Amino acid sequence: MKKASTYNITAETLAAYLDGNATAQESQQILHALATDDELQELMQISQSIDEELGQDMDDIDIIPMTAMAANCHDSNLCCLECEKHILSRHGIPFDAQQLHADAIRHGWLKQQGTALHNVGRHLENFGLSVQRQYQCCLADIAQALKNGDDIIAAVDEGELRGNLAAEQQEDLLIGPLPDHTVVVLSCDTTRHTVTLFDPNSDRAEDTYPARQFADAWKDSNNYLVTINTKDMKTYTPTPIDLTDVQLPDDLNELREAIAENAHDIWAKNRQAEGWTYGPQRDDKLKQTPDMVPYADLPEKEKDYDRKMAIETLKLMHKLGYDIIKREETPLYQTLLERIRNANQQFYCPACQKDGTKTPVFINDVFCTHCGKLLEINWRIYKKKKK
After folding, report:
1. What distance in Å separates the CA atoms of residue 27 and residue 21, rounded to the nearest whole number?
2. Which is more confident, 35 or 300?
């Protein structure tokens, strides 16, 4: 059988395909390889096993594409940077284009695949502008932001924006919605039902689209908007992501109390480092607070605050497409252990081997999962031996 490497499928490409972020060309390449590559088929089966063990069906959740890459810009990956430069120019803020590009790479905002949606607007923050990121918006939000005098960057599916509906529908069937481009929204005419944009992919200063066509392209990013203004805190309206469609598995609900207690301990440790101590009433001058006690001694009202933060964080991880699995309790974990046991080259815990037990060891393990002893392993030498 042909190996995946024959088709030049990298781990990054496969991961993007599994996450629904691969391009149509990459998806077709993987589907072609699946027909003849037994090793790739096994990886896909393991991926399906993971999906079955996650608890709630992810299809029931309207996933937020936070890590989707804005990349389409004249065959480069700089559409986000071009939008930021456009807004800096509108504000009359001088900048060095080469330095912006270098800073984007240095900070990790700009990668080879493009700019992740959650990093859109980072340069603008550095230039003293106020940036707010929010999903699940609507055209009315755009109109209101423009009325407030805000600048707006929207993430869209570039193909749908330009009306390539047939190709985009086929792509959506293969890999799902794909927000891959950013534009600056210049105006939203609710009477004519049009939206005017600065599009880095256009040779014109501005382009006007039917509002419905823009909305279809914008929908693929879960209606992601980045609003920018001068630092006027009066206009700030908190817009947390709606998590009402996320139902956590029971085992994750059990984590709530542990996370809440640890969060309180982190808060208390930081407060102590700042000089705060226990006091019957809060006193900012004396740096005293009645909350400087163990979590178990907190009033239920304070515990509930920490619990809510913990549960909302876990829900947000699901909403963003991530999952938490306790590996030892899943059939998949046992499958992976069996693969290691049957591998031609394997590594076992030295302490267990002395007792005649073969306990497989993962490269990221610090302690043996069987005997609990510290693993004193020189992985660098082990890797050389494997080669």
Report:
1. 9
2. 300
d(CA 38, CA 258): 42
What does the pLDDT average to over 270-287? 95
Closest by CA position to 184, among listed 269, 309, 326, 82: 82
Judged by DSSP in three states, 235 sits in helix
pLDDT tens per residue across span 97-130? 999 999 999 999 998 888 989 999 999 999 999 9
Question: What's the burial of 316, exposed, middle or buried (CB within 10 Å: 0-12/13-18/19+)?
Answer: middle
Contacts 24+ apart (CB under 8 A), 348-352: 349/373, 349/375, 350/375, 350/376, 350/377
Q: Is 369 in a helix, a strand, or coil?
A: coil
Whether pLDDT at 57 is above 60: no
Token duo for residue 188: 């939203």
Q: Is the pLDDT of residue 324 over 80?
A: no
DSSP helix/strand/coil, 5: helix
Helix axes 38-53, 24-34, angle to 10 degrees: 110
Tokens of 260: 């809440």
Amino acid at 156: V
Contacts made by residues 106-113, CB under 8 angstroms, sequence distance 24+: 110/77, 110/78, 110/80, 110/81, 111/69, 111/77, 112/77, 113/12, 113/16, 113/69, 113/71, 113/77
DSSP for 274-303? Answer: TT-EE-SS-BTTTTEETT-S-GGGS-HHHH
Residue 88, helix vs strand vs coil: helix
| Averaged confidence pLDDT in the chain | 80
> Which residues touch 374 (CB under 8 Å, ≥6 apart)?
366, 367
| 324-358: burial string, b at 16+ Cβ within 10 Å, e else | ebeeeebebeeebbeeeeeeeeebbbebbeeeeee
pLDDT at 196: 96
Q: Which domains does the chain have, with CATH numbers?
A: 4-54 (no CATH), 69-235 (3.90.70.10), 250-319 (1.10.490.160), 343-386 (no CATH)
Residue 381 pLDDT = 47
DSSP code at position 367? B
Whether 226 and 153 have beta carbons less than 8 Å apart is answered as: yes
Tell me which of 44 and 351 has the higher pLDDT. 351
